[in-house]
From TrEMBL:
Entry's Gene Ontology molecular function annotations: ferrochelatase activity; precorrin-2 dehydrogenase activity
Keyword entries, A-Z: NAD, Oxidoreductase, Porphyrin biosynthesis
Enzyme class: oxidoreductase
InterPro entries linked to this entry: Met8-like, NAD(P)-bd_dom_sf, SirC_C, Sirohaem_synthase_N
Protein's pathway: Porphyrin-containing compound metabolism; siroheme biosynthesis; sirohydrochlorin from precorrin-2: step 1/1
Highest taxon in the source lineage: Bacteria
Family matches, as SUPFAM superfamilies: NAD(P)-binding Rossmann-fold domains (SSF51735), Siroheme synthase middle domains-like (SSF75615)
Protein name: precorrin-2 dehydrogenase
Organism: Lacrimispora algidixylanolytica
GO biological process, one term: siroheme biosynthetic process
Length: 213
């Protein structure tokens, strides 16, 4: 069965990662862009995790010890990425009993959520999943979609988001609003991901004038 792609705000959510190796390092790297508070518990840590801790200040905590059940009292979601399959399964069982979302790295049947292949450009996020059946296909599609996204699209999305209230304030008809936003995107792509407020105001006036003719 395919997975439904929920997009969740992770800012300041509490994440527990059990395991301090390469796998956990990669999960932290992916999650960092979404600003959760991450605690990694492991007897020892990959050197890159130590570097990330320095770069990321207070949002990444490393606790050099074994996992204990009391670690599950606080987190909003958990990632089990140790080299001990029995421990990963135990963590999964505990999380499921407590209704805590759990990802066991590379063991789909022990997961209540999975990590998709991600493309991120500021507020634009594209997520690709094959339901855990073929990470190779997910990576292939990720590379293809990444090529298809125009340069500066994340910047353009941010700019157009700032003009939404302006368009709503000046334009009542949804059909004209839709036309305006479509034109903004097309012109913004042509201009390398830039569409100024002055251009937005001029476009609104022009589209309203065209409608009144």
């Amino acid at each position: 069965m395919a997975y439904f792609p929920f997009f969740v705000d992770l800012e300041d959510k509490k994440c527990l990662i059990v395991g301090g190796g390469t796998v956990s390092y990669r999960k932290v790297e992916v999650l960092m862009d979404y600003c959760p508070q991450i605690t990694v518990v492991a007897p020892k840590f990959h050197p890159e995790l130590r570097k990330l801790q320095k770069e990321w200040r207070g949002n990444l905590k490393l606790e050099e010890r074994e996992f204990k059940e009391s670690d599950l009292e606080d987190p909003d979601f958990v990632v089990a990425g140790t080299s001990d399959e029995a421990l990963n399964k135990h963590i999964s069982d505990l999380c499921r009993a407590r209704k805590i979302p759990i990802n066991v790295v590379d063991v789909q049947e022990e997961c209540s959520f999975i990590f998709p292949a991600l493309i991120k450009d500021k507020h634009i996020t594209v997520a690709i999943s094959t339901g855990g059946h073929s990470p190779t296909i997910a990576k292939y599609l990720k590379d293809k979609f990444k090529e298809a996204i125009p340069d500066g699209f994340g910047d353009l999305a941010e700019q157009l988001g700032a003009y939404r209230d302006l368009v709503k304030e000046k334009v009542d008809l949804i059909s004209i609003r839709t036309d305006i936003f479509k034109t903004m995107v097309e012109q913004g792509i042509q201009q390398g991901g830039i569409f100024t407020r002055e251009q937005a105001e001029e476009l609104i006036e022009r589209k309203l004038a065209e409608h009144e003719r």
